[in-house]
Amino acid sequence: MTPNVHPIDERLPTGKLTALGLQHVLVMYAGAIAVPLIVGRALKLSPHEVAMLISADLFCCGLATLIQAFGATQWFGIKLPVMMGVTFAAVSPMVAIASSNPGTDGARLLFGSIIGAGIISILIAPVVSRMLRFFPPVVTGTIIAVIGIDLMRVGINWIFGNPVGPTAPLIVSPEHSEWLSTLRSAGATGAPGVPAVPQGLALAPTLPNPRYAALSGVGVSAIVLVTILLVAKFAKGFLANISVLVGIIVGGVVAAASGMMNFSKVSEAKWVDLVLPFHFGMPIFDPVSILTMSLIMLVVMIESTGMFLALGEMTDKQIDQPMLSRGLRTDGLGTLLGGIFNTFPYTSFSQNVGLVAVTGIKSRFVCVAGGVILILLGLLPKMAALVESLPTVVLGGAGIVMFGMVAATGIRILGGVDFVKNRNNALVVAVSIGVGMIPVIAPRYLQWMPHSIHILIESGIVLASISAVVLNLVFNGSKGDTEAVIRAAKQAEAH
User: How far is Cα 160 from Cα 450, in angstroms, rounded to an integer?
Assistant: First the structure.
């Protein structure tokens, strides 16, 4: 290390810098590509457009990482070894928006809400840096646990099939469908004694769908899951850190060998292409959608605060309030850029913070190198097309681990909460998780509520967040405990 240069500002040799930067990219790659696959398919976009989302996501991951690690003006960049990636906290509300508004218009609505949330996040960053007292571990642990539980539905549906569509559990009997079609034709021609079929009449699916829970697909998911577990169990160091990525690669190879993958889109994709803004047209700005995404960003920024403080301890760097504001402001800027370039909200990736502790390399320029690599990957459409061609069953096996680890992180944070001396903490957790499960267990509970607020209240994460904050204030007040927040952040990284 150069004398009088802090370890975070140390410039390593180019070769070492590139290798260490690539390691950071590989650690976060599985998480980075999962979100555009989830949201793109929820929007019912074409394979080409989903691949475009993946390219845009990798590009924006790199751009946000460069800003955060290298710095940009006096307003943006905490200048710590931080890798930026899409936050899983936003997946559930994004899927809710996408499912209710599929297609291009849904994409415009989604990216409009992300742009709005990004702008709001930039503006409130200095305020959020002073809001730790409202988000102690009992609140953040509960919220993160609910996020993981909510996301598990996605992973399970990837394995077996979706509740609706071609892979739904049941299908309409072909005989019944043919009978109704004949009756509808006869009624339309005015045949005597045949009444017209009422508008919107449809038959209920009653037959088991052979595409649902097909053993071949379940088998591939099982191979992915077992591979991840074996690598995590027996591998050491770097290989253990990328167990999810190894599992996805093995699953992809098995799926390709079984004829489950279609590579036509890979051959059609360009080798190099630019990531352009507003691919789907001008965004639609809906106040309720923006508010929903802003609430998610508030939780994300509080989580980032804990991670920044923990990272400051790891790197022997004192994190003051202006630095914290710059880091949180960059979360907002990354999210704003995400909306502009047709991608998603961004935050610091906890697994990469954990990698800093594992490797002992504190230089922020390692993450700068990682950001450059991500930008280059985002400019390679064939790479994105290859990822898009993965069948959902491959991602399902990995999703069980990825989304389960989110829930486990929340549980791990709650493990540091005092439930013995303060029994009220148990009430905060119990009620908030229960409230967060309402949309999961009873998705039609809001049928009589005003449609304008559906997006806001159909997210279990938002409901759990509001419940946890309010109940904690009622039972515990707003006493700040920065040390507890740092401990919680370190627990979140330790996976």
Answer: 34
